Task: inverse folding
């Protein structure tokens, strides 16, 4: 008994069309912008809540500070109004990935709205004695991540202007000095040009330093992101080219044999005059040989295609195993008919079993297993049983035959390319020896496993185990 | 008898199809590329078109031609039968079959695989000409 190691590969999704590849590349940057804009709106509600708490505290004597609760109420009203506005604008934008400029504009509006509210609160709570100015930093850091380097520098400069404006206006005597701590020191500081200028420049320096530090890291991240995107685009391009060249190679190799076979048909069916019996037999053999070569070409190309999947042509969707099995059992019944080999389909009335997979590749997998079973079963009494067993999260599909069986010493080699056991060659000379290699590749690509049990002279059983999924969109 | 236009770059395929169709009383005209197709069809006035998919200059030429014909009011009602060596039976993920026929993707009346069994070809031709 040979058991293939279950190997799980990452599942990709790729939309395939004849001659054209349709790819959906998510615009990560726009998604990030939309996510940040939403996050900003949520965070602003928290800030509004914090302001409400501040307003309540301001009405009590818990904190020994002179804070006007009305200032908090004004801030709450301003932030609530603007936040509702941003939500409404954002609602129309978030579904559309292409409107990057609008998203950036929305973020910019949010930042400047916040700068206004922060500036007002900075003034209300005291420009020097509270750390309100540091709250501008959060916006500056985000700006470096979401805008270009120069745009973020402008935003940082604007933040600095908004943060310093109350202090400068106090210095100029345009607005009265506000402080949560009533003392002469604050008055003296606010009217001292040197100290005020020093404070403003120092805070500007801190903003600039933070902007530089984060923008450097951000630039490096953006560069990596661009490199990744380039690599992704390259992989898609390679995949598309590979498909095209595989298609052309298949066509170039198969087309001449198709032409030969067409002539064989015309000879066989007497379109070029009646052939003597011996010539008729030779023509039939030429035709059969053509079919064998065509099958071999198809198998070789198919196998190499499966082994070189890059982004992958596997379109993994929810597939109902039962419909694949019924379809292939039906095909098998037609093939087995001429040799009176019976296909017993035990899955016909089974409820749907869904897995994530590629419909086409799964069809190939079971087509190969069923055709193999037919090829190596005896004429007239051969029977191939297709069955499925399920347990929570798992499905086991078995294809059993009463054929020639596989010798014990060949069991571990049957999935090797071109391997054919002696009794297999003796029973069915035309095989390519690649059918089970293809089966193995498809099993691996689906993160499934395959098990073979066989007794020489009595038959073989191939069992493929899949992880199932809950019913989703069905590709039947 | 009905007139059938075969459009294929493979002269051997054309030759063998011609033998089968002419022996069964059909008139056959041929074209080995898809250039200036609408004019050719206007002149030949076929009752059925047998169209290859892959041409040396363009692997999608057959599809492009089928879509072009489908858009042209003068010729859109002439049934088109697609013919190719690469199809669903080739077990490739890009294979296709009759089930892929659609207004946008494959606006044709039928699809057959190369090499085509004479009996299959004749029955398909009869079906598309409306005398099964």
Result:
């Amino acid at each position: 008994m040979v058991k293939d190691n279950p190997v799980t590969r990452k599942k990709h999704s790729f939309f395939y069309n004849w001659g054209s590849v349709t790819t959906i590349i998510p615009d990560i940057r726009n998604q990030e912008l939309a996510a940040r804009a939403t996050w900003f709106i949520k965070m602003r509600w928290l800030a509004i809540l914090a302001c409400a708490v501040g307003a309540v505290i301001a009405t009590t004597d818990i904190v020994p500070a002179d804070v006007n609760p009305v200032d908090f109420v004004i801030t709450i009203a301003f932030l609530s109004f603007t936040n509702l506005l941003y939500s409404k604008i954002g609602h129309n934008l978030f579904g559309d990935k292409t409107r990057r400029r609008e998203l950036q504009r929305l973020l910019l509006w949010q930042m400047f709205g916040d700068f206004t509210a922060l500036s007002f609160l900075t003034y209300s709570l005291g420009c020097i004695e509270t750390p309100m100015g540091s709250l501008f930093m959060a916006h500056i850091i985000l700006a470096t991540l979401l805008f270009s380097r120069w745009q973020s520098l402008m935003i940082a400069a604007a933040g600095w202007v908004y943060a310093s404006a109350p202090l400068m206006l106090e210095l100029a005597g345009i607005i009265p000095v506000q402080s949560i701590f009533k003392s002469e020191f604050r008055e003296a500081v606010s009217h001292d040009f040197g100290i005020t200028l020093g404070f403003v420049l120092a805070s500007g320096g801190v903003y600039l330093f933070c902007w530089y530090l984060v923008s450097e890291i951000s630039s490096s991240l953006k560069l990596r992101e661009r490199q990744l995107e380039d690599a992704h685009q390259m992989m898609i391009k390679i995949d598309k080219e590979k498909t095209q060249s595989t298609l052309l190679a298949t066509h170039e190799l198969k087309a001449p044999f198709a032409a030969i076979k067409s002539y064989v048909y015309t000879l066989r069916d007497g379109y070029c005059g009646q052939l003597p019996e011996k010539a008729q037999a030779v023509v039939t053999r030429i035709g059969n040989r053509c079919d064998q070569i065509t099958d071999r070409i198809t198998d070789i190309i198919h196998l190499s295609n499966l082994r070189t999947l890059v982004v992958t042509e596997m379109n993994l969707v929810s597939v109902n195993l039962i419909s694949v099995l019924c379809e292939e059992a039906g095909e098998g019944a037609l093939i087995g008919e001429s040799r009176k080999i019976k296909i017993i389909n035990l899955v016909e009335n089974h409820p749907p079993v869904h897995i994530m997979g590629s419909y086409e590749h799964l069809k190939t997998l079971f087509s190969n297993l069923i055709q193999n079973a037919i090829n190596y079963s005896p004429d007239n009494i051969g029977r191939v049983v297709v069955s499925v067993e399920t347990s929570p999260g798992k499905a086991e599909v078995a294809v059993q035959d009463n054929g020639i069986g596989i010798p014990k010493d060949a069991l571990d080699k049957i999935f090797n390319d071109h391997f054919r056991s002696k009794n297999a060659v003796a029973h069915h000379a035309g095989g390519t020896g690649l059918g089970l290699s293809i089966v193995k590749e498809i099993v691996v690509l689906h993160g499934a496993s395959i098990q073979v049990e066989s007794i020489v002279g009595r038959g073989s059983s191939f069992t493929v185990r899949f992880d199932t999924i809950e019913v989703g969109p069905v590709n039947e | 008898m009905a007139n059938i236009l075969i459009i294929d770059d493979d002269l051997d395929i054309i030759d063998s199809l011609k033998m089968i169709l002419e022996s069964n009383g059909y008139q056959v005209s041929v074209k080995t590329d898809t250039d200036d197709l609408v004019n050719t069809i206007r002149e030949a006035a076929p009752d059925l078109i047998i169209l290859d998919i892959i041409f040396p200059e363009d692997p999608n030429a057959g599809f492009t031609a089928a879509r072009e014909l489908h858009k042209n009011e003068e010729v859109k009602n002439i049934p088109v039968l697609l013919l190719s060596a690469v199809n669903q039976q080739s077990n490739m993920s890009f294979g296709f079959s009759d089930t892929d026929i659609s207004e946008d993707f494959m606006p044709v009346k039928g699809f057959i695989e190369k090499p085509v069994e004479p009996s299959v070809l004749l029955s398909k031709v009869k079906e598309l000409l409306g005398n099964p």
Q: What stands out?
A: The radius of gyration of chain A is 37 Å. The first strand of chain A starts at residue 2 and ends at 3.
